[in-house]
Design brief:
This protein is of the alpha/beta class. Bound molecules: zinc ion.
């Protein structure tokens, strides 16, 4: 009796010792055990709990592995016991995860970010957890469709077939994720959903410390003591709003100071691994002697076009920081000419990441511009990732359902960019509109060639049982509507989701409602959200119809004035007797739309345009440009007059004028911008009144070819409100672009001018 008792005690002590030293049993059920290392990390602990939960719900009987019901051991993370069990040749798992098998023992292992809580953050790698989820999906038959505990399907009593010794997958992209904001699910649920779907955002994909040259900081510290630290413009140091917000890039003291600040920040907070310098803003060039003489300047263009200098400066700072901390990564800002022109003189290297900002989702776009940008950046040795898969109008809650498009889009970047971790979901969007997209995005980032049709069918089977057929048709119809769009920049309710176009989708959803099983928890939210959107589309339709029909293309006949306009009277085109008056139409349904008027007339030698911009806030008009023929006048509150004298639209003048009467002329021929510059003269006068600003233009006709007056021209005028609530309007405006010449009105000249043709041509040659 004593002997047996002591043996048992010894045995217990022995196992206890092993457990303490070499791992602990987390679960012991049916014919399987889950073993965690001693002192497990949060990643390992959560991975084991996921495995325990799913296996517990999947199996009521012993698990059959390769046809047998032997005892199965699952090691989650490397414990001493795993080594004893024979896992001794595991390859380095940097950036990867995998499942390893020895007989009926499994090891789940991968690269885990240090001190990561995989449930409270979606960032950083949790390789061991991915290994467990990968195993559950691929071998146990679990599928994760939605966040939360009702969002997955089980494959009850499924037999495990795992013949090889390892399964280390090679995903299409290293950076994988979905956007993370929803009113319907908690952050935690969304994080778990992303992890379950093998999302992985390596630490180098996002900054955890930003160093910006905010004037309030740098100016406060150095303005008085070191004016030479700041950018010089026209002989003076400046420190203001962008593009004047940065220091001199060629002052060695600035480089040292910046590096010193970053090193101090890392010393204060050792968890910093990725630093971002500069915010997303364009930058002007420094005029100091050192900058002008810098070798980089030769590779730069004018003013904002200065990638070489901008990144050359960053590289000098990075090299200094690396002397103290060789493993610190950096990440680029992503706006402006600098970003679009990667440096050639310096190689930024693999510790520098660049986010590629792709814009304007369109099934018709080749995205070649961005593909080229990725290639250019890759040539500098950096890592690239997609800042967003093409960005939608922010904070809109449209039912954008386009996984086929997404697949084509992602395919263009396979092997070029590391991946993406955003999607179409914004906090306001009903999750139901994005659910299939989120699910499929995670799959495509893992396997870009996945069958989207099969995934959709799979999704519909889970989410809308009984109505799979109708729901597949519904999704197809929604993607078909999207695939017609050239750009999502315009109000989709005016274009792809114009009320009448949604009828078919609505009827498919109605048909699905009759067939879907009553206990489907995912159909109701989608139906409710879509019905609301559908009603909204119809509610706005009458207004949209007004806009669409507001200004059909017409011919504007320029009247010949009987009494010439005296350019010395008060600026008041509404007083021009005999001029034609035209209204402006908004490009969208703006609240508080500010109206404009155009007065059009000519005499034998000049075209007269009188423009009236009604404006609530005339005190805060944007008037950056003060000199004719220079600066971005189109960035001010302005009018843009488009004159297209060429029969085939191959040549046109764009005259931009602001509220000071400052103007600039652009001339485009055969699709190319040509320099007309100061050669093209316009006489302007302007006036700002309490509720409006006015500008008058006198354009000498002899500046055009005499043949131009033989036929109709194309003609348009646009107005941009820049300073206050941004608005675009025009004599005829459709969509966002000002350059769609075929959408313009026609313009004809008075007969008298025809007779003057010879006179005009004489004037021209004299
Ligand atoms: Zn300088």
């Amino acid at each position: 009796m004593f002997k047996i008792f002591s043996k048992v005690v010894l045995l217990i002590m022995f196992f206890a010792a092993i457990n303490v030293l070499a791992g602990k049993v987390f679960e012991n059920r049916l014919n399987y055990q889950i073993i965690l290392p001693d002192n497990p990390t949060k990643v390992q602990r959560f991975a084991a709990s996921e495995l325990k939960k799913i296996l517990g719900r999947t199996y009521a009987k012993a698990i059959v592995l390769n046809g047998k019901t032997d005892e199965i051991t699952f090691f989650v993370g490397f414990s001493g016991n795993a080594v004893i069990a024979g896992f001794t040749n595991v390859p380095p798992m940097k950036g990867k995860f995998g499942v390893f098998r020895k007989d009926s023992k499994f090891l789940f292992f991968g690269e885990d970010h240090k001190n990561l809580d995989p449930v409270s953050s979606r960032y950083n790698s949790a390789g061991t957890l991915s290994a467990v989820h990968y195993f559950l999906k691929k071998y146990v038959g679990t599928n994760f469709y939605f966040p939360g505990d009702k969002g997955y399907s089980l494959s009850l009593e499924s037999q495990l077939v795992f013949k090889g010794a390892t399964d280390i997958p090679k995903p299409s992209f290293e950076v994988r994720g979905v956007y993370h904001s929803s009113r319907e699910f908690s952050r935690k649920e969304l994080n778990i959903f992303a992890r379950r779907n093998l999302c992985n955002i390596p630490f180098w994909g996002k900054a955890d410390y930003s160093y910006y040259y905010y004037p309030e900081k740098w100016k406060k510290r150095f303005w008085k003591t070191h004016p030479d630290y700041f950018m010089q413009r026209n002989g003076k140091p400046v420190c203001g709003k962008y593009p004047l917000h940065v220091p001199c890039f060629n002052n060695p003291a600035v480089i040292k100071q910046t590096a010193a600040d970053i090193i101090s920040a890392i010393n204060r907070k050792p968890s910093i691994r990725v630093v971002r310098m500069f915010c997303d803003a364009p930058i002007n060039q420094c005029h100091c002697a050192r900058c002008k003489a810098a070798p980089e300047r030769r590779y730069c263009g004018k003013d904002m076009n200065q990638g070489e200098e901008f990144y050359g400066f960053q590289k000098k700072v990075i090299d200094l920081v690396h002397e103290a901390f060789p493993d610190i990564y950096f990440i680029s800002q992503s706006k402006g000419n600098s970003y679009s022109n990667p440096p050639k003189m310096v190689k930024m290297g693999p510790l520098f990441s660049v986010e590629i900002l792709t814009r304007r989702p369109s099934s018709l776009s080749s995205y070649s511009k961005y593909v080229e940008l990725v290639k250019k950046w890759n040539a500098t040795g950096v890592r690239t990732l997609l800042k967003s898969y093409p960005r939608y109008p922010a904070f809109k809650d449209y039912p954008i359902m386009n996984p086929k498009f997404l697949q084509q889009y992602l395919k263009r970047f396979v092997g070029l960019a590391s991946g993406a971790y955003r999607s179409d979901l914004s906090r306001k969007t009903p999750y139901a509109f994005c659910a299939r997209g989120q699910f499929i995005q995670t799959r495509l980032l893992f396997d870009v060639n996945a069958d989207v049709g099969r995934l959709t069918a799979d999704f519909c089977r889970f989410a809308y049982p009984g109505a799979e057929k109708e729901m597949i048709a519904f999704y197809d119809e929604m993607e078909r509507l999207f695939s017609k769009s050239k750009s999502m920049w315009d109000d989709p309710l005016m274009t792809i989701y114009y009320a009448g176009k949604l009828k078919k989708a609505m009827s498919l959803l109605d048909a699905a409602a009759k067939k879907v099983k009553k206990d489907s928890i995912w159909f109701k939210p989608l139906e409710a959200a879509f019905k609301k959107f559908y009603a909204e589309a119809w509610r706005k339709k009458p207004q949209i119809d007004v806009l669409r029909k507001a200004a059909p293309i017409k011919t504007i006949a320029v009247p010949m004035l009987k009494t010439p306009i005296n350019f010395k009277d008060k600026v008041a085109p509404e007083m021009w007797s005999g001029a034609l008056k035209e209204k402006f139409y908004p490009s969208k349904l703006y609240k508080n739309f500010q109206k404009s008027l155009a007065y059009i007339a000519c005499d034998k030698e000049n075209l007269y345009l009188g423009l009236v911009a009604f404006e609530k806030y005339t005190k805060s008009l944007k008037q950056t440009c003060r000199k004719n023929h220079s600066g971005a006048v189109w960035g001010d509150d302005c009018f843009e007059i488009m004159l297209v004298p060429a029969k085939d639209n191959s040549r046109y003048y764009q005259i931009v004028v602001n509220s000071l009467g400052v103007y600039r002329v652009l001339f485009r021929k055969n699709g190319k911008q040509c320099r007309v510059g100061k050669a093209f003269k316009v006489q302007t006068r302007s006036r700002i009144a309490k509720d409006r600003w006015l500008v008058e233009l006198k354009i000498s006709l002899k500046q055009f070819d005499s043949d131009d007056f033989d036929h109709k021209w194309r003609f348009n005028i646009f107005r941009t409100r820049a300073a206050n609530v941004k608005q675009a309007s025009g004599l005829r405006i459709f969509g966002g672009s000002y350059h769609n010449l075929n959408q313009y009105h026609y313009l004809t000249w008075p007969k008298e001018l025809e007779q003057e043709k010879n006179f005009l041509s004489k004037l021209k040659f004299w």
